[in-house]
Design a protein that fits this description.
Blueprint (H helix, E strand, L loop, with lengths): L3 E5 L6 H13 L3 E5 L7 H6 L9 E4 L2 E4 L1 H11 L10 H16 L2 H6 L15 H22 L15 H15 L6 H12 L1 H11 L12
Parallel strand pairs: 1-2
Antiparallel strand pairs: 1-3, 3-4
The protein binds glutathione.
Length: 222
């Protein structure tokens, strides 16, 4: 049994779980996984056995429960500073936290109209002027961030700050949405999405999502 356990929802649908899980992988911890399928009669009572908020992801470590994806990122960064989950330079770190918090607190149009559904293909569905506006805001932040910070990083693997950080984890479910809903992209955005989808833990998650048995009707587009 590993020292850490991460409780998550379905890999195909649970965007917040994906964020926490990628952060755990990027931090390099060994962890056990408990998958609680969402939208079943027993979902809430099962999640509440582990998570005081009734939400996933929650990271369990030596009697401590850490819930909320961003808090999980902070805890992992405290325990594993060598993983540089937040960029090392103060300005880059502040920028990464701004980007991540904006994602955590916002983009409700995108989140509601284009729910994460990794194995589905819904070209053109879910797009509204408000969704388009949020996607433009996100992709302009990505372009600006890569221009300002990735080039100056010791190693540029195509991520927002060069190497994979918590900020990339926060936006990974946006990357899968752009793919599921076949949103038109400029070449910089396309390159960034390709880098995220090629990140080995991301590939592992996507493969698992495609092989999950559960189908949640209410999360599928008509
Ligand atoms: N702000 C939370 C959001 C967590 C969240 O909303 N998780 C959803 C799954 S993606 C959940 O636990 N839903 C509970 C349910 O469906 O019963 C975070 O950052 O971790």
């Amino acid at each position: 049994m590993a020292d850490f356990t991460l409780v998550i929802g379905n890999k195909n649908y649970s965007s917040w779980s994906l964020r926490g899980w990628l952060m755990a992988k990027a931090a390099g911890i060994e962890f056990d996984e408990i998958v609680v399928p969402l939208d079943l009669p027993e979902t809430q009572s099962t999640i509440r056995k582990h998570s005081p908020s009734g939400r996933v992801p929650v990271l369990l470590h030596r009697g401590l429960a850490v819930w909320e994806s961003l808090a999980i990122g902070e805890y992992l960064n405290d325990l594993k500073p060598e993983a540089v989950l937040w960029p090392a330079a103060v300005a880059a770190r502040a920028h990464a936290r701004s980007l991540s918090t904006e994602m955590h607190a916002g983009f409700l149009e995108l989140r509601n109209n284009m729910p994460m559904n990794i194995r589905a293909s819904y070209p053109g569905k879910g797009m509204t002027p408000a969704v388009r506006g949020e996607i433009e805001r996100i992709t302009s932040m990505w372009r600006d961030c890569r221009k300002r910070f990735a080039g100056a990083a010791p190693k540029d693997d195509g991520f927002l700050f060069g190497h994979f950080t918590a900020a990339d984890a926060m936006y990974a479910p946006v990357v899968t949405r752009l793919k599921t809903y076949a949103v038109q992209m400029d070449s910089d955005t396309d390159a960034y999405c390709k880098a995220v989808l090629a990140y080995p833990p991301m590939k592992e998650w996507v493969d698992a999502a495609k092989n999950e048995p559960w189908l949640i009707e209410s999360y599928e587009m008509k």
